[in-house]
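User: I'm putting together notes for a lab meeting next week and I want to include a structural view of one of the chains we've been expressing. I don't have a solved structure, so I'd like a prediction I can at least talk through. The sequence is below, exactly as it appears in our construct file.
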Amino acid sequence: MTTAKRFSKFQRPTEKDKGRISDRDLDIIAAVLRYRFSPASELVRLVGGNEDVTQRRLRRLWEWEIINRFAFPTLRSHSEFYYYLDNRAGLELLTEHRGFQVHPAALEEIDNNREKDYAQAAVRGTMNSTDMLTKMRAYYHFIKKQQRHKEAFGVHPVRAVLIETTDEQRAVKLMQLAEHPLVSGAGKRAGLFWFCISPLFTDPDKGNPLPRYLAKPEAVLDPIWALPDRTMHRLNDAENSATLPPRSR
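Assistant: Thanks for the context. Below is the predicted structure for the 249-residue chain, given as structure tokens.
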């Protein structure tokens, strides 16, 4: 496979094929708008009809810059694509063809998606270390120091902040950031942040073509969440308990 062929999945063509918007295209846009971040396999089921046609229309809408997409890297290649809206073209089509009433929250979310640029973040390996350290520090102080989560979310306590990242190498870097003194202070155990990697959800199990999060959604409850000290946890573990011993570095 040539380099140009390989990267055509992640770079839009400079010369776009002309075409018309179909009813299936509008169904796809409406589904992406409703579910915000939708994997291709989910959209195929939501839209119905022929799977190959839906996959082709997804790619065409992406090429036309009506929807955007990203994928997580895996050992073999990459996960399936996840689609989202990051410009208003899709809303304008729904308004024109189906009388869609645009809610201000939808416009705000689309503008936020464009600012975050998830597609390029996935290609780069997500946000840089400085931004991530700042975000962890903010979470720690919001929850542990100020305890403002009680008023903001009406829950207490917050057991963990879950962070899913692309691969083990990236996870190790994020664990090291979580232990930085600027996050929670010098010498303190970084137990608020739990980490896992995307292939645990996106890779299919043996003998099943579906990604694991569709075939076995309860996998999120398995002991797949790692703390910076490498202990592995389930979501329903009591605080400070470990279900598995630390993983070797």
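A couple of points you could mention at the meeting. The longest strand covers residues 161-165. Residues 129-233 form one domain.

User: Perfect, that's what I needed.
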